[in-house]
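Forgive a beginner's question, but might I ask you for the amino acids of a protein and the tokens describing how it folds?
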Amino acid sequence: MIGGQYRSRPLRSARGMEIRPTADRLRETIFNVLTAGNPAALDGSVWIDLYAGTGAVGIEALSRSAQQVCFVESKPQAVKLIRQNLASLQIAKGFEIVQMDALKALRQLEAKQVAVGFVFLDPPYRMKEAYRDALELLEKAAFVKPATVVIAEHEKRFDPGEAFGALKRYRKLVQGDAALSFYRRT
């Protein structure tokens, strides 16, 4: 962990799996951007950690005062890893783990009329179409309000797109081989 309640606590990852946890420095960048000028920006927030992998970003959000995180992951081994990481930190509430395809999960969340402050998506880099599909669905989702921030982690050589209807990128940061694109509805 970079900051918050669970700082300096290691998370498990699995070798050989197609899981690429968000690097510590990149995670730190995400949360520094989101809290710049407003350290309480995450207090009581609701997150969707899409393609959650190890759950590192969602767990970091919980560590930094998020109220609820919905971890969405389709791979059973990764879901097991998320559960192990939450248990190792003794996090027993404030989360939901949804084991299913990301787009199907977004549609279910839409039906529940969940109010969401932040959506983080980080599909395997080779799944380039997953960015477009998720961002197009998020652009139409009623739970994505003008204040909702959608963050996409991607390879710096790949551009997921400037705009998806009213969902427009307002910031892009490059760090090493990775990049972060921040979107808001306009």
Notes: The helical segments are 24-35, 56-63, 76-88, 102-112, 128-140. Residues 24-178 form a domain with the Rossmann fold fold (CATH 3.40.50.150). The chain is about 30% helix and 25% strand. Residues 121 and 172 are 14 Å apart (CA to CA).
